[in-house]
Structures are given as C-alpha cells and as structure tokens.
Write a structure and sequence with these properties.
- It contains 3 helices and 14 strands.
- The protein is mainly β and 290 residues long.
- The protein has 2 domains: 22-115, no CATH class; 126-289, Porin (Beta Barrel), CATH 2.40.160.
- A hairpin with a 3-residue loop joins strand 9 (187-202) and strand 10.
- The two termini are 28 Å apart.
C-alpha cells in the first residue's frame, strides 16, 4: 500500500498547467490580471475585492473600463466611450455591448479581427485550471471507535480543478491522505477522496470555502478484539463509501501562484456514523497554482 501512496503522490507532482495571470501597473497600482483577448486591443480582467474589473490595452496604454451610476441611479456606460475611441478606425456598432466579460470579449475579438485578418481569439470559456496542495495535520478519527479520543497525525496531497470564468467559485478535487497509528491507538488509514468545493467568499487576497467528500476509498489497518476481549485479530481491509463528509477551509495568498491553506475537515457526515467525540481534524498546507 505504501508503494501505491508514493506513486499517487508522484503523479500529483507530475501534473503541470500554465497560468495566464500576470501583474500590470495601472494608475500606479500593481494588479494581477487575466488575459481574455490579445491583439490590437488586449482585454484584461480579474475579480478584485469581489468585483469584476475590466481593462483594455492598446499601444501599451492600459485603460480601465467602468460603468458607474449617476445621480439618477442609471448607469453612465463610460466603457462605451472608451471602446468607441479605441475602435474609431473601424466602423463597429458599440450600442449593444454590455458590461460583461462575454460581451466585451466578443466586441474586442471583432475589432481585432477587423484590424488583423489572421487574428485568433483566445478561448477561455472553459479553460481548466489546477492547483496542488500539500498538507499535514492532526485528527481524532471521529468516524471510528476511539474510546480514549487519541489524536493522530496525518499528511496528504490534493489536486483541485476549476475553470477561470464566472463559475470559478466552484471546484472539484481529488485528494489522498494517510493517518498514522499511535502506540495507544492501533489504527492507520489511507484514504482517497473525490469531492466538491464552493468558495462562498472569494477575493484576490483570500477565499473561504466549504467542502464535501462525496466518494471515498479507505484502506484500514487495525487490531480488533474478538469474543469478549479474549482474542485479537489483525484486520487490513479496504472499502468504498459515499459518506458526504463536510468540512471548511481557507486559502490565504502568499504570491501570484502560492497560498497558505487552513482546513477543518470531517466536521460531520451525512451518511457516516461518528463517535461521541468532538471532531478534531485540522490541517495546514501550502497550495500552488500549476
């Protein structure tokens, strides 16, 4: 089983994916922006402080697109004025351009194609991103019998998958973790899990999310007592479950491609019985954008 763990962790390390995010200086501030279109006019964007912000770049000059409300609470649509000025060399209709990533991208692509017939649009609608998490922590194995409430260490790795679009709050993940046995608690477990994650707070500096592990494969190695404690038997077994284990986590940004991750796992499960012990399952790790 240990060989299998090493192979899985090695496979996790072998996955790589290039990020399209870069830092740009806009009005004296350094902003991390994603490239949505690249041509005569570039379209840049990101979610900053929980708000979508859009920028265009032409002749190395970056201008922010805005759509503020006036005294009448109607949107001023300043972005249309900027786009009209930048595309004045082409006869393009600006009236139906909305202040959304899809609509802005469509207009910029149309302009870039008009100025360069060999222009090729960037397709970002379903661009898959990956992140690698290496973590360690402690647990009291709340879903198994643990009379003395012994806390044991664990370590693991995780791959997270999500898309860079309006659905980026949603993610799927696969992780593997190994719980070590202790002298006073003869129980070890290696678990593979598939799950879903939703970021209910998602900012440029940190995010907070909920997890659900809906499918697990657990390989357990322990000693069980038989016939009223007269005999003991070594048990090694694996099984597949659909426990729907609920947890919480947070990612705190360190750099453009790294985060500190804090997690409280195994708070409760919808379809798995827990012991009477209060759940202790805390982890800390470092996450990398690949």
């Amino acid at each position: 089983m240990k060989k299998h763990i090493i192979l899985i962790v090695f496979a996790v390390f072998s996955i790589s994916f290039l990020s399209s995010q870069e830092y740009y200086t806009v009005n004296g501030k350094s902003l991390e922006l994603k490239t949505e279109a690249k041509g005569t006019i570039d379209l840049l964007w990101n979610i900053i402080d929980r708000q979508y912000r859009y920028f265009v770049r032409k002749n190395d000059i970056i201008t922010e697109l805005t759509n503020t409300k006036g005294n009448t609470k109607k949107f001023k649509e300043e972005y249309k004025v900027v786009l009209q000025q930048l595309s004045s060399d082409q006869n393009l209709d600006i009236s139906k351009v909305n202040f959304t990533l899809t609509s802005l991208r469509r207009f910029i692509n149309k302009y870039n194609l008009a100025t360069n017939t060999s222009y090729s649009a960037i397709r970002n609608d379903t661009k898959l991103k990956t992140q690698l998490l290496l973590f360690g922590g402690i647990t009291n194995n709340v879903f198994v019998v643990n009379p003395s409430n012994v806390v044991t260490p664990f370590f693991g790795a995780e791959i997270e998958l999500f898309t860079e679009n309006r659905f980026s709050n949603h993610a799927a993940f696969f992780n593997v973790r190994h719980v070590f046995e202790q002298d006073d608690f003869d129980y070890s477990e290696t678990q593979l899990a598939l799950g879903y994650r939703y970021r209910f707070i998602n900012t440029s500096k940190f995010n907070i999310y909920g997890n659900v592990n809906f499918l697990t494969y657990s390989y357990v190695d322990t000693t069980v007592q038989l016939e009223e404690n007269m005999f003991t038997e070594r048990l090694s077994d694996g099984n597949i479950d659909f426990p729907f284990i609920i947890g919480l986590g947070a990612d705190i940004k360190l750099s453009s491609k790294s985060f500190i991750t804090l997690a409280y796992n195994e708070i409760f499960a919808l379809f798995e019985e827990s012991s009477d012990n209060f759940p202790i399952d805390f982890a800390i790790g470092i996450k990398f954008a690949l």
